[in-house]
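Subject: complex prediction, re-run

Hi both,

The earlier run crashed halfway through, so I resubmitted it with identical inputs.
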Amino acid sequence: MNLEIILHAGLATGTVLLFAAIGEIFAERAGILNLGVEGMMLLGAMAGFSTSLSTGNVWLGLLAAIIAGGILSLAHGLVTIHFQADQVVSGLSLTFLGTGLALVLGEGLSGQSPQLVPAFNIPLLSQIPFIGPVFFANHSLLVYLGYLLIPFTWYYIFRMRPGMHLRAVGEKPDAADTMGVSVYGTRYFYVFIGGCLAGLAGATISLSVSPGWYSTQTTSGQGWIAIGLVIFAQWNPWRAALGAYLFGALRRGILDLQGPAILLGFANPLYVNSNYGFFLQMTPYILTILALIIGSRQAIKKRLGAPAALGVPYIRGERGL
Amino acid sequence: MTQKRLWILLVLTAVLALALAACGGGAAEPAAAPTEAAAETVAEAPAEEAAPAEEAAPSEEGKYQIPAIEEGKYNVAFVYVGPHDDGGWTQAHDVGRMYVEENVADVHTAYVELVAEGADAEQVIRSLARKGFDVIFTTSFGYMDGSEIVAEEFPDVDIIHLTGFKANGENFGNLMGAMEDMKYLAGMLAGSRAMVDGNPKLGYMATFPIPEELRLGNAFALGAQKTCPDCTIDVRWLYTWHDPILEQEAAKSLFDGGAQVVMTGADTPAPAEAAPEGKWGITYDYKDNCTNPACLTSMYWNWGPEYARIVEGSRDGTWKGGWEYFDADTGSMGLFGFMEGEEPMPGVADLPAEDIALIKETLAAMLAGEFTRFDVFKGPITDNQGNVVLEEGESLEQADLDGFAQFGSECKTCMYWWNENITAELPELE
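This time it finished cleanly. Structure:
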């Protein structure tokens, strides 16, 4: 067992959660809860894999994944923004829709090997001891893209004007509307961005982290973890990144921990009885459930800093907050 | 005004997606569909297809689609734990199913895939029995109790469960083969490879701590001992039969931990896919899944002939649900690259001739029925706690191969030990 290796693997697998969680932060900051992340991810994973396979061009694959996730999310936007339907119900059905579509269209894709996203070292930075091999060596391009996305998202949401509009629409849509910000337009746009990032998260699995198409097991519930992570992260991209990388490292750590007989001078409990690994395996899901429980309580939600209009449809002149 | 613009945006994106579909093959197609589908999400119920006269319509059992039978044919159903094209365990069964379809007269076969072990499986098996299937093969360890219960409820339906240890002597039988034969040979191959590469470390991805997985791991370890006395074997527990992503991570974990060759007990060819440059994986279950150049061999099943025999026996009324366990001489299993008409994989080419000769001789003896599972588990064997498992010349007995005393098995030397070259421990059983 080697901390360097676990962290390196954690950053790679965590990137999947990172993209999905940041996408969901955008959508929720605009006031739209989208529980369809799992479906959009799976569709993205399938579209990316299939396109890369048939065109031999992984960049087209990533583009297809982004567009597939984005367009699927517009279905949710249409139902919840235009028709003011319940966001939870619509989000859940989006999961089914996305999963079903991905399974039907992904038939026959397993066992194939398309072009994958290239991995490389970042010159100079990869020479730094410990930090270099963990963060900047032998990672896929998408991991590095993730590093850039975190500060950008933060700066965009909290410091740039369109980000302020985004938050205004999620906090107080009628005020935003009065100020001349298009509530519908903004919500559609960020739901779409959320879908694009979820699609990219899916392709990150199928074209980079664990290459392959394995029907529903490609995403295996990671979309749900991403949704929990958003609440856990209080709608802040930095915390979301921390959580994503932590969960990523945990997935791998559980396996690596089974290796050594002696750990830090003590008998390693996972070596003696690997059943203890179950408890570690549960943690992301327990935290997700906890986050969802907390997130569903209005009072706590306010204190956590949830967008005030999250989950509330906007009808001009009728139901402003 | 804004609404109008949004609609234009929507239509534009849909058009864009369609345009992409033209160059992206099937991939981008889904992108266009949801927009239309969403417009009528609620209104449009899936149109029920008119069923042909001789066929009953398929039905739903929870999230599983239960297939229909065909009147006038002998109906055979299969319950799979993974998808039918998983490239491993389940695909091997599906190849067996197709063999039955092609080689047995007047037979209709169908399958339900991705069925969770436990309560879900019982519901699915019951639905199949109720539908009127004559024979049901349930192909995962965790389907055992469900199969037993449904077999009791439907005495006219023959249920064959794979890899478990229960049977009722009537319509509920148990079927498994001695894959330990092939794992033993694969161990020899892995040991030889590790010796040549100068890194005497191997890895085993185990699923659950049940007799089967310990037996197969020990067989691999005993084989490795023959060609690489210094080799040690690292273990990663998966606690699943089929999770392609987790399997890849476990394989990487073993490789990163220093293993030169990794062998799997789970369903997908993950070890070969995850093998870094210069390291090797051994895949399991399915003959054609050893395609990656990093794959040394595949220990595979050939279920077709056994299935055909059972289906015909069931129709004649000669089949009785007993306890069937076949060895390599039935032709129902193989070691890829070493069987008739197969080319060895590139990783085998530069191995010492005497190791290859040993593997070939042992394999020939196995196919001739002269070398069986009782020869694989023949003393002297010592476990990794320093206890002598078998003295020189002694063999394990069938009950020892497949049981824990804690679950009522009559085993004397129960399969709850790791061979001396395995670096892992087993928790105390209550």
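Residues 3-304 of chain A form a domain with the ABC transporter involved in vitamin B12 uptake, BtuC fold (CATH 1.10.3470).

- K.
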